[in-house]
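Page 37, continued from 36.
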């Protein structure tokens, strides 16, 4: 993780760099704080889908929670206004705000707006016709990343799961291009062809053993039906349909399982004191803890989300490895591991 402070301009530059690379991320902004939280109003951080953080929005208690919630924002592509703190600090929350427990027992609290910053679509147009060239030019004008590749040079390596592929080879290697495209499992594959021609191409590939599940993903003909049109107008029709599909979320990578519920009822009791960063202690593990993000786990003593690696004070017990946010939690676990494991099993 890179948790060094970023000033405003450096944050903008980093965001621009990630966008150019096609990396999706979340931008977290502190809109309110309650001391002694180390986050400050207006502070911002960039969090990538793999949990890398650039910037500063809070210390040891806030950071793992913000990373987890940012990853969920990227996944479901919806912004969130969240309040981090202890359950007994606040009354009824405003409509649209979500409360997330922060395990520290200090009176610090943060309100953050976390928004997804989605990568521009990556359009791969296969072919060299005037229509293909126009389509690339139009997509570029919209701010999309667009590549024009000759059918003879096109391979599966030219696409990934976020690519939008349009095959515009117009009878010159349609079958080969479609076969290469679907093998890369892109977000979308469209073939510029008549319906009859499309059926012939897909039928040929099915006979060759290409999975029907993959072939069913191919949209043919691609583009709105504008009647008898010129090559540039066909490009407009194709891009118009892609824009509509993007607005509906149909150009996103294959969906994953929805994130677990973020509602965390809590049974409060006194936990060990740590005095680390903004923390002066921790509350017990919530009775319903959301699943941690990949590469992280839950400290069974305090309920804090921690990296599942050697930086989190690993402790072996009963053939399992447990991780902790600080020495105090590990010491408490060492004294009576069974108590915390039993509590976890009954939650």
């Amino acid at each position: 993780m890179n948790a060094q402070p970023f000033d405003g301009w450096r944050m903008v530059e980093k965001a621009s760099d990630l966008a150019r690379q096609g990396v999706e991320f979340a931008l977290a902004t502190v809109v309110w704080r309650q001391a002694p939280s180390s986050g400050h109003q207006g502070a911002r951080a960039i969090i990538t889908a793999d949990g890398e953080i650039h910037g500063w929005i809070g210390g040891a208690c806030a950071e793992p929670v913000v990373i987890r919630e940012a990853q969920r924002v990227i996944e479901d592509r919806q912004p969130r206004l969240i309040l981090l703190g202890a359950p007994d600090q606040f009354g009824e929350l405003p409509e649209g705000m979500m409360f997330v427990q922060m395990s520290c027992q200090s009176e610090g609290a943060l309100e953050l707006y976390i928004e997804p910053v989605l990568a521009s679509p990556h359009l791969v147009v296969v072919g060299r016709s005037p229509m293909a060239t126009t389509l690339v030019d139009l997509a570029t004008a919209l701010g999309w990343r667009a590549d024009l590749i000759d059918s003879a040079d096109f391979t599966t390596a030219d696409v990934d799961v976020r690519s939008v592929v349009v095959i515009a080879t117009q009878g010159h290697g349609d079958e080969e291009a479609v076969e290469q495209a679907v093998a890369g499992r892109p977000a979308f594959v469209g073939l510029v062809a008549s319906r009859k021609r499309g059926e012939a191409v897909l039928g040929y590939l099915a006979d060759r053993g290409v999975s029907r599940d993959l072939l069913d993903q191919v949209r043919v003909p691609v583009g709105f039906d504008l009647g008898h049109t010129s090559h540039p107008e066909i490009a407009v029709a194709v891009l118009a349909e892609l824009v509509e599909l993007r607005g509906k979320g149909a150009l996103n990578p294959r969906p994953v399982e929805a994130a677990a519920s973020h509602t965390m009822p809590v049974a409060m009791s006194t936990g060990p004191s740590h005095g680390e960063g903004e923390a002066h202690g921790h509350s017990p593990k919530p009775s319903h803890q959301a699943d941690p993000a990949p590469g992280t786990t839950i400290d069974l003593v305090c309920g804090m989300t921690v990296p599942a690696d050697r930086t989190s004070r690993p402790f072996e017990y009963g053939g399992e490895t447990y991780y902790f946010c600080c020495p105090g939690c590990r010491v408490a676990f060492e004294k009576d591991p069974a108590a915390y494991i039993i509590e976890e099993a009954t939650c």
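The chain is about 30% helix and 20% strand. Flag for discussion at group meeting. The chain has two domains: 8-118+263-346, 122-247.
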